[in-house]
Write a structure and sequence with these properties.
Blueprint: H1 2-26, H2 41-72, H3 84-98, H4 105-126, H5 133-157, H6 161-169, H7 177-196, H8 198-204, H9 208-213, H10 218-239, H11 246-258, H12 262-286, H13 295-315
Length: 316
């Protein structure tokens, strides 16, 4: 029964994503017909790379959110709630302030290091509480806000506030073929590492004591997850900016149909995240033509009440 339900939801999400993808390519500042989808230069050179960027971003954010929830045993763990996006943004603000390039692998590497350092600080500060959900969120939010405040101060002092603002709101408008290629490479590395360490990660989801009794090195698995999350945060923040709450919403939707089965949850999370970002970016591009609304702002508008709903649900 559970397998049939997963299969049904999988195909519904997949077909919906494919349908929305076609609509995504056709609608925009100027609409095109279905017959032009394989020949129009605007579609092939601008909208198709943007669509691929959404796929990679959704995969990385959704799966990272699920991994963080496993690692901290916290249903509301996500890049934004743990301050990880703030750490990545701070690293990028340093590059801006120093006048270094914020395109390519350097920015991704810097953002990944910033994300890893912030996540390490949060984990160290909350380890004694056994990663109590509320304390993890409080510490993560505090550290993230501190990093974001520093980044804002640095970019304001160096007169680079406008460029920094584009990262904070999150938008797919600046995607280039090179950025999409970089996201693809990181996504492949992320998936390969996830497949290799899938079993110990699944064991960690059973609890620290159970995982240890099964011969799993809990600290090593946590470091692996932190590296994966840092990679995902680094490439997404450096290419499209801060896209909040996708890593929170998508895994929760997936778990309603999978009963926390690892790979099923991974697959449905990625599809649900893709659906969410497609809807957000479609709305962002078409609501205020010819102007474009940041897709990250729409995910925040949706994610904030969802976040509060989960907190209220966990408090009962």
């Amino acid at each position: 029964m559970a397998k049939k339900r997963f299969t049904l939801v999988f195909f519904i999400l997949l077909l919906t994503v494919l349908l929305l993808s076609v609509i995504f390519l056709l609608l925009g500042n100027k609409n095109y017909s279905l017959s032009e989808i394989m020949s129009n230069k605007i579609i092939l050179q601008l909208r198709l790379p943007r669509l691929l960027g959404i796929y990679f971003t959704a995969f990385l954010l959704s799966v990272s959110g699920y991994l963080m929830q496993i690692m901290t045993h916290n249903p509301i763990a996500e890049m934004s709630t743990l301050g990880i996006s703030g750490g990545a943004s701070f690293a990028l603000s340093l590059l801006l302030t120093l006048g270094l390039t914020t395109n390519g692998t350097l920015s991704t590497l810097a953002a990944a290091i910033g994300a890893f350092l912030v996540l390490s600080i949060v984990m160290i500060l909350t380890a004694r509480t056994h990663f109590h959900p509320l304390k993890v969120i409080l510490v993560g939010t505090s550290v993230g806000l501190f990093a974001t405040s520093l980044a804002s101060a640095l970019t304001f002092a160096s007169h680079r506030s406008q460029a920094y603002f584009l990262w904070i709101v999150g938008s797919f408008s600046g995607l280039t073929n090179m950025k999409v290629l970089l996201m693809a490479i990181v996504s492949v590395i992320f998936l390969v590492l996830l497949i290799f360490f899938a079993r110990p990660v699944q064991m960690l989801g059973l609890g620290d004591e159970m995982a240890t009794s099964l011969g799993v090195s809990v600290n090593r698995v946590r470091i692996v997850i932190m590296i994966l999350v840092a990679l995902a945060s680094g490439v997404t923040v450096s290419t499209v900016g801060v896209i909040s709450f996708v890593g929170l919403i998508a895994p929760h939707i997936a778990r309603r149909f999978t009963r926390s089965k690892f790979w099923q949850t991974i697959i449905l999370s990625a599809l649900a995240g893709t659906l969410l970002l497609l809807l957000a970016d479609l709305a962002a591009r078409n609501m205020f033509k010819p102007y474009e609304f940041p897709a990250g702002s729409l995910t925040m508008l949706l994610g904030a009440p969802f976040f509060l709903w989960i907190i209220a649900k966990e408090a009962k």
